[in-house]
Structure formats: structure tokens, C-alpha cells
Write a structure and sequence with these properties.
4% strand, two-stranded antiparallel ribbon, mainly alpha, 314 residues
């Protein structure tokens, strides 16, 4: 039964990612908003929904390590696993917004989380309010000031959807991603519990990879359809949303207390290191058209993630 849940969950996630991408492109054309912003708002909100649901449910049930491990593990998986695999399939050109807003905001969010947890091993309600306030400020800045157009490599494939169609695609895609993630996590956790694995390990590995599959499916589909701006914006935006929205909202509802100190003494350092590495990696490959991330960076990121998982299961 657990294997069936995993299989159905994966199918829902794949189709959900496709529908969500259609909605994102449709909105970007109708509203004349750069696709990088759509990727960091509409797509990121929907693909971060599984993390929010899992973390909130876990925290309310007293499983704080699962709630926190899910977010930290997902952020590591988004850059190490998802971006790594995406780059093995195709290169991604670096937009100016990556250096000006996207990467700095991801690091600011990460260091805020690190500071709050290092202080007393807990995320209090007021700290969650600060995190969520940062998110609102970031979104207002994006929508008001970041108007740089994103180059579309295949504009003839773009389709300006009618408003009701775009909303329908977004709704169905979001529901499919949520339902698929729930089934996948239920099946994966059910199998893992047979081996008596701790909550932190389950959250960092199985659950975080499960909730990162929406990002993986959306990013791969984006690359295959040449909507690479959405692919990169989606991943960075999801990491920002995971910290500011998922942990922010969850800790506002109920405080998150660290039980397994490995989350602070080990896991969060991996999250910070991989996030920091994206900046220097972006300077390794230069073309006339500008900086880009390619297969070499993909191998490095994926290799780092494999080492991380190997150390976790030892």
C-alpha cells in the first residue's frame, strides 16, 4: 500500500507541475510581469504548499524535529538535488536579479533562521512574525521595483491563457501537488518507520525529498519547455518561502523547539554552505551572453547532496 501511495503521489506531482507552469506563463504574459517574478511568487507559493502543510501538521502534533527538518532538508534538496539534476539537463543563464535580489534574499532568510535557532534552540511566535514580515516586504519590492524583462528563448511556445483558464490550471496544479505530496510522504514515512528511523532523519531525507519533488517536476518541465527563468526563480523563491512563509507561519501558530541538536550542529550548516556556494559557482562559467550555470556546477551540486545524504544515513 505504501508503494502504491508513492507511485500515485509521483504521478500527481508530475502533472501538477505541468499545470502550474502553464498557469505561471499565462499570468506572466497577461499581466506583463517578468517570468522570474512569477516563478518566485505564484509557482513558489504552490510548490511550497506541501512543506507548509507537513511542517504545520508536524509542529501541532508535537513533532518539531520533523517540521524543522522538513524545511532545512527541502532547502538543501532544492539546490543540491533539484538544481543539480536540472543543470545536468540544460544550462541556465544567470539574470541580473539573481545577484541583486534573489541570492541575497535567500542568504538573508537563511541567516535569520540560523540566528533565531542558535539563540535558544527555538522559533518563537514573534520570530515567526519577523520572518513572515520579511517575506511580505520582499514580495512588495519584487512586484513594485523589479521590472527587468526576462529573455524567452522560445516565445512562439508561449500561450496567453484566458483568466479563467489560468486560474483553473493554477488551482488544479496546486491541488495535485498538495495531494501528491501528501500521498508520497504518507507512503515514504510509513516505510521508513518500519526501520525505526528518528524524526530528524526522516524529515531531512525522505520527507524533504518528497516535498521537493514539486520543485523538481516544475523545474524539469520548465527546462524542457525552455522556460528556464521560471526554473531558477522557482528554486530560489521556494527556499525563501520555506523559511519565511513555512517556518514563519508555523512558528506563529505554535513555537518550534529543536529536540535533536543535530539540526543546529550539523544540518543547518549544510543548508548555509550549499546556499552560499551558488554565488561562486555562478562565476565559473562565462559566455558572451553572460554568466551561467551548467553541467559542471550540476555535478558539483549533486555530488555535494549525495555526500550529505550519505553522512546522514551513516
Amino acid at each position: 500500500m505504501n508503494l502504491l501511495f508513492i507511485a500515485i503521489g509521483l504521478l500527481l506531482l508530475i502533472f501538477g507541475g505541468d499545470w502550474l507552469l502553464k498557469a505561471a506563463v499565462g499570468f506572466s504574459l497577461r499581466l506583463q510581469i517578468p517570468k522570474i517574478i512569477i516563478g518566485m511568487t505564484v509557482v513558489s507559493f504552490a510548490t511550497s504548499a506541501p512543506e507548509l502543510i507537513v511542517s504545520l501538521k508536524s509542529a501541532l502534533q508535537g513533532h518539531s524535529d520533523l517540521a524543522l527538518g522538513n524545511v532545512i532538508g527541502s532547502n538543501i534538496a532544492n539546490l543540491g538535488l533539484v538544481l543539480g539534476i536540472t543543470l545536468l539537463l540544460s544550462t541556465i543563464k544567470i539574470q541580473r536579479s539573481f545577484y541583486v535580489t534573489d541570492w541575497p534574499m535567500m542568504m538573508l532568510s537563511s541567516f535569520f533562521l540560523f540566528g533565531f535557532l542558535l539563540d535558544d534552540n527555538k522559533l518563537e511566535a514573534y520570530e515567526g512574525l519577523i520572518l513572515f514580515g520579511l517575506l511580505l516586504g520582499f514580495l512588495i519590492y519584487l512586484l513594485k521595483f523589479q521590472k527587468v524583462a526576462v529573455i524567452d528563448e522560445m516565445p512562439e511556445d508561449d500561450e496567453e491563457l484566458e483568466l479563467w483558464k489560468a486560474v483553473t490550471y493554477m488551482s488544479i496544479g496546486g491541488i495535485a501537488l498538495w495531494g501528491g505530496s501528501e500521498l508520497l510522504i504518507h507512503g515514504a514515512v510509513g516505510m521508513a518507520e518500519k526501520f525505526n528511523i528518528g524524526q530528524r532523519i526522516i524529515g531531512i531525507t525522505i520527507v524533504s525529498v518528497g516535498t521537493s519533488i514539486p520543485e523538481l517536476s516544475a523545474s524539469i518541465i520548465a527546462v524542457l519547455k525552455k522556460e528556464k527563468a521560471i526554473s531558477l526563480g522557482n528554486l530560489i523563491g521556494s527556499n525563501v518561502f520555506n523559511i519565511l512563509a513555512v517556518l514563519g507561519l508555523t512558528s506563529m501558530v505554535t513555537p518550534i523547539t529543536v529536540i535533536d541538536m543535530g539540526l543546529i550542529h550539523n544540518d543547518i550548516y549544510w543548508m548555509l554552505a550549499i546556499a552560499l556556494s551558488i554565488l561562486p559557482l555562478s562565476f565559473l562559467t562565462f559566455r558572451r551572453s553572460g554568466m551561467q550555470l551548467g553541467k559542471m556546477q550540476g555535478v558539483l551540486l549533486l555530488g555535494t547532496y549525495i555526500v550529505f545524504i550519505y553522512r546522514m544515513v551513516q
